[in-house]
Structures are given as structure tokens and as C-alpha cells.
Amino acid sequence: QVPLVESGGGSVQTGGSLRLSCSTSGHTYINYCLGWFRQAPGKEREGVAVKQDDGSIVYADPVKGRFAFSTDNSEHTLYLQMDNLKPEDTAMYYCAVGPFCTGTSFFGDSSLQTWGRGTLVTVSS
């Protein structure tokens, strides 16, 4: 599996912005789902924004209107622009690719998915 590497995390105050990046190390994932997920301390991992294999992007309700998923033209870099950040957005953020997804969830054989190691986002009030 080609590694995914996230960057761009940090500490901001409520209302601030961050832009996360995820490098696919030059690998192109054709007909794959591309996604951003997060896991807060003591909570389960949740989908934040997932680009379906048809190109549509699905956002989790808590981030709609504040976060924006994009890629470069080659889809070798994924981005997550996060605006109007709130303390509840504090979490480790991961990018991932996988062949099957619905909504903001990946499903199917997890061995077919690739996950980055994450980048920490901390939002203080």
C-alpha cells in the first residue's frame, strides 16, 4: 500500500481556520473513495467528508457549510479546508482511500483501505 501522509494540523482558537493536506505519494486512485475522518479522545472515528467514486462529495452534518474537501487536478493531494472551527472539532484527522463507501463511511474489506497516520487539530475556546 502506498502511504498517505497528512499535514496542516495545529492549534487555533474558536472561529479560526486550518487547511489540512494529504499526500498520496504520487499514487492515483481510480474509482476509489477519498475521505477525511476524525477521532476525538474517547470517541469513535467518524467520517467528515468523503468523495464518492462518482465524484460527489458528502459531508457530515456537523461540518456542513464550514469544511470543504478538494483535491489537486491529479488527485495526488487531498485538502480539507476548515473554517469557523469549534472546540468540538478537536480531534485527530485522518485521510483515507478505499474502494467502497456510502455517505461518510467506508465499508468492505478493510485490507483494501489505506489510512494515513493523522494530524492533530486542537480548537480552544
Describe the structure.
- Strands 2, 4, 5, 6, 9, 12 and 13 form a 7-stranded mixed β-sheet that branches.
- The protein starts with a strand and ends with a strand.
- The mean pLDDT is 95.
- It is mainly beta.
- The chain has strands at 5-7, 10-13, 18-23, 33-39, 46-51, 57-59, 67-71, 77-82, 91-98, 101-102, 105-106, 114-115, 119-124.
- A hairpin with a 5-residue loop joins strand 5 and strand 6.
- The radius of gyration is 13 Å and the shape is globular.
CA radius of gyration: 13 Å
User: In what range is the share of β-strand residues?
Assistant: over 45%
Number of helices: 0
Q: Give the overall shape.
A: globular
Q: What summary fits the major beta sheet?
A: 7 strands, mixed
Average pLDDT for all residues: 95
Cα separation of the termini? 39 Å
The count of DSSP E runs of length 2 or more, i.e. the number of strands, is: 13
What is the helix/strand order? EEEEEEEEEEEEE
Short description:
This protein is 0% helix and 48% strand. It has 125 residues and is mostly beta strands.
Keywords for this structure?
125 residues; mainly beta; 7-stranded mixed beta sheet; 4-stranded antiparallel beta sheet; 13 strands; 48% strand
Topology summary:
Layout: E1 5-7, E2 10-13, E3 18-23, E4 33-39, E5 46-51, E6 57-59, E7 67-71, E8 77-82, E9 91-98, E10 101-102, E11 105-106, E12 114-115, E13 119-124
Parallel strand pairs: 2-13
Antiparallel strand pairs: 1-3, 3-8, 4-5, 4-9, 5-6, 7-8, 9-12, 9-13, 10-11
